[in-house]
Amino acid sequence: MTAAATINIPEEDRLRADLYNYLGLVLAGPPDEMLIGQTAGLSGDDSALGEAICTLARVAKVTKPKNVVSEYNRLFIGLGRGELLPYASYYLTGFLNEKPLALLRQDMSARGLQRAANVFEPEDNIASLMEMMGAMIVGRFGTLADLSTQRDFFNKHIGPWAEHFFSDLEGAKNSVFYAPVGSVGRAFMQIEAEGFRLGGT
Predict the structure, then answer these.
(1) pTM for the whole thing?
(2) Most buried of 103, 105, 120, 178 (most Cβ within 10 A)?
(3) Tens digit of pLDDT for each residue in 85-122?
(4) Which pLDDT belongs to residue 7?
(5) Rounded-to-integer distance, Cα 54 and Cα 64, Å
(6) Sequence-distant (≥ 6) Cβ neighbours of residue 110 within 8 angstroms
(7) Does residue 12 lie in a domain region?
(8) Which domain holds residue 74?
(9) Quick one: pLDDT at residue 113?
């Protein structure tokens, strides 16, 4: 990635990448005190996404790290399994490690991407997909992904299931901090899907 490429990323795309990266971060593991504090400082407008961000900020202001660790464990880890299974294969086929994961691995390989050695989660988990999308937008993997490449990746690996997952996260019985995370994710996925459908972002 060249310095020129970094400079030429439109502000709107930087904001999109930031939101993808944020969602990837809070879904990969429970946020620490610093991230909770940063979340509490967020603000939004009167759009559905903006209102969801405002709600998330209000919840973050009264969230303690130890409570969100317990919540994360109940949602995603649990005894045997958590309340939700945040994997494309599960949402699209009802089983883990199925064709959606194989297709994602093919696309990752074509882009020279591979799972980090210390990561054991299947690559089709929602946190990894959010991180990949954010990285593609700003060229963190070496080259900036053009709109067509972003659209193809989103439509193949994220669009078919992520909004459903975020809706489930909103309504999960163990969701407190993560309920508005689900609202933010659901609204953002709707915006992205519509932007790609119209040929813009």
Answers:
(1) 0.92
(2) 178
(3) 999 999 999 999 999 999 999 999 888 777 777 767 89
(4) 53
(5) 18
(6) none
(7) yes
(8) 3-30+66-176+185-198
(9) 77
118: buried, middle or exposed (CB in 10 Å: 19+, 13-18, 0-12)? exposed
Domain CATH for 141: 1.10.3480.10
Long-range pairs of 81-87 with CB within 8 A, sequence gap ≥ 24: 83/172, 83/173, 83/174, 84/165, 84/168, 84/169, 84/172, 86/27, 86/125, 86/126, 86/127, 86/165, 87/122, 87/124, 87/125, 87/126
**Structure-token pair, residue 180:** 């508005």
> Domain count of the chain?
1
- CA dist 154 and 148 (Å) reads 10
The answer to whether residue 36 sits within a structural domain is no
Q: Work out the angle between the directed axes of helices 11-28 and 178-198 (0-180°, nearest 10).
A: 140
Q: Confirm whether 47 is domain-assigned.
A: no
Residue 22 lies in a domain: yes
What are the angstrom distances between the C-alpha of 69 and each of 72, 167, 173?
5, 21, 15
Decide: 127 and 24 in contact? Cβ < 8 Å.
yes
